[in-house]
Amino acid sequence: MFGFKQFIPLNEQKTAARGVQHLPHPAESALAARKGAVGSALSNISSVISGRAPLTRKIDDRMSFQVIKKGDKVGVKYKGPGAQYNFSLDDIKKQYANKPYVAGPLMNILKHVHKVLPKGEGEYQGGYLSSLEDRKEEDGHISHTPNTIKYSVPKNSPEGKKLARAPLSIALHSRLDASGRATPVEADELQEHPDVHVMSHVVSDNERKLSPEAKKKAAEHIAAAKKLAKNNPTDHLEGHNETLLRYTNSTIDTGEKPSVKGYKRFLQKYHQKRIDSVKTEKAKAQKSAEMQAALNHVDEHMGKFDNSFEIHHHIQKATYAVADALSRTASGGYKHSIGGQESTGEGFVSKGMKFVPRAFTVANRKRSAQLKAQKSVI
Predict the structure, then answer these.
(1) Do 46 and 65 belong to one domain?
(2) One domain, residues 175 and 249
(3) Whose CA, among 138, 166, 232, 267, lies 20 to 30 Å from 41?
(4) Are residues 193 and 181 in contact, defined by beta-carbon separation less than 8 angstroms?
(5) Count of H-run helices and E-run strands, the chain
(6) Helix, strand, or coil here: 81?
């Protein structure tokens, strides 16, 4: 079965202007043509290690939603461009008459979410996880699979009991101010109610204690990245940000370490596809010239690109050291699996950056490839 995010048409998956936007990985800073990007990312990693920075869990929800409370009225909407707040079940049926995969969750949210919202008026963002019929009991555990990750918790634990009886399960992670800027919702702001299971996104102080080995490994890679970045310019990265990100993402599947040689191979394939996609000789000549210019630019700045890839490597290793360690101590009491294989949670968020464990990255990309293969034969 396809997850919700694979099922929604692409034009409906675009990020809305308000609320939480795309969260970058710390290592992406090494590929950004922006002065100070690397230093900012390294500082963020260090503050997570020391415990100074706020830290929350990423939860693999089925659908992102927003809710607004005005006086005694509560409205909900799917977090997508052009979506309007719905203050009644009839509103939802009307707006999403042809989209039951949106209407169903929104109706469930509208029925129950007001029971746990903070007192007073406000606007919030969260993730829909499940209803009662989405849950499964097996081997003394209760679980639900909102999207890709299966979350499983002992049935007789306090968390398991809440999940077993609540008609609605959500994560409610952000408060939106008048400008749409998101700030974290603290757990003690929410009200308790048996009809709503709220999966905690807040990582407690006890959960975020890293092992000495993880701290040492991360510190070594941070030091190496700082040394390389000290005199490394960023002008060579101009115009290459998109292809650099695509290339480094592709190496997760191949297992190779990003390098100038590998990037040049990627550029040739990337631009050749663009050349093959057009029909006229003029268009082909133009795109061929663009390919040659990109390759020439890399050749002219080979040392700088090589340095940037080394910085990326060390930041990625430092991030994995932190995220992998946190996945063992800050699971929120849940076991995680993807496609029947043991995994980790989706990761953590601090100061607008996501810290994703390597195990999740690999398992998630493997699952995505399987879904893509299934789709191609339908």
Answers:
(1) no
(2) no
(3) 267
(4) no
(5) 11, 14
(6) coil
Q: Which two tokens stand for residue 47?
A: 């503050």
Beta strand ranges found along the chain (DSSP E):
56-57, 63-70, 73-78, 122-131, 136-138, 141-144, 150-154, 168-176, 182-184, 196-198, 335-338, 341-342, 348-350, 353-355
C-alpha torsion angle, residues 293, 298, 299, 300 (rounded to 10):
90
pLDDT in tens, 24-64: 999 999 999 998 999 999 999 999 999 999 899 999 999 99
Residue 78 lies in a domain: yes
Q: Indicate whether 185 and 146 sit together in one domain.
A: yes
165: which 2 tokens? 């009886």
Say whether both 214 and 262 belong to one domain.
yes
Residue pair 211/217 in contact (Cβ under 8 Å)? The answer is: no
Both 356 and 232 in one domain: the answer is yes
> Strands 168-176 and 196-198: what pairing?
parallel
User: Collapsing DSSP states into helix, strand and coil, what is residue 16?
Assistant: coil
Q: How many Cα atoms occupy the beta-carbon half-sphere of 4 within 13 Å?
A: 23
pLDDT in tens, 184-219: 888 889 999 999 999 999 999 999 989 999 999 999
Q: Of 174, 198, 222, which residue sits at a domain end?
A: 198
Pairing of strands 122-131, 136-138: unpaired
Alpha-carbon distance values, 165 to 106, 137, 187, 195, 197 (Å): 19, 12, 20, 7, 8
Q: What are phi and psi of 59, to 5 degrees?
A: -120, 130
169, 130 Cβ separation under 8 angstroms: yes
DSSP codes joined into one string, 253-299: HH-PPP-HHHHHHHHHHHHHHHHHT--SHHHHHHHHHHHHHHHHHHH
Q: Do 225 and 373 share a structural domain?
A: yes
pTM of the full predicted structure?
A: 0.85
* Domain count across the chain: 2
Residue 273 CA to residue 251 CA, distance in Å, equals 19
> Looking up tokens 């290793």, which residue turns up?
317
Planar angle of CA 276, 277, 281, nearest 5 degrees? 65
Kind of pairing between the strands at 122-131 and 353-355? unpaired
What single letter denotes the amino acid at residue 78? Y
- In a domain, residue 9? The reply is no
